[in-house]
TrEMBL record:
The keyword Transmembrane helix applies. It comes from Nostoc azollae (strain 0708). TPR repeats lie at residues 9-42. Keywords: Membrane, TPR repeat, Transmembrane, Transmembrane helix. This is Uncharacterized protein. It comes from the Bacteria. The chain crosses the membrane at residues 153-172.
Amino acid sequence: MTTESLEIAKSRYQVGKAAFENGQYREAVENLEKASTLLANNTRLAGEVNIWLVNAYEAAGRSEYAIALCQKLCRHPHYETKSQAKHLVYILKAPKLKRPKEWMTEIPDFSGISDNKSKLLLTTKLQISNLKQNPVEPEYVDLSQVNTKDNRFIWVALIFVGLIISYLVWLCV
């Protein structure tokens, strides 16, 4: 492997990671695959690139590729890569749980709306959905249930504070 191909692989790896972190999974898969082909399979960097590629495959909906690559990485010579691959295989092969629709929040697509209109529309929709979920009803208080008797707490507290102040003055004199 030449230093030029190593530099190209590193730059593709960085571009792929950035694309993955920005949610552009197809682009991440492309860049990480190209970086992986430029590296020798038994190096630490190749293992790191392939772990990211497993995650990108899964995020892009290509679970079969992710599991196959992850099983291959379980035999990688670098210990950390092998360990991560074993954990990922366990997670990827786990059964998918069905979630009730009530647990899910639908995120509307505002890509076709200009920036200011989308903010206004999003705020309005959130306010409407909050009102539907938590309708505001006026709270009425029955005044016959309210304790309006004077319990003389204020007077007791003032006398107590006065005694403490007079005691402190007496100590200072």
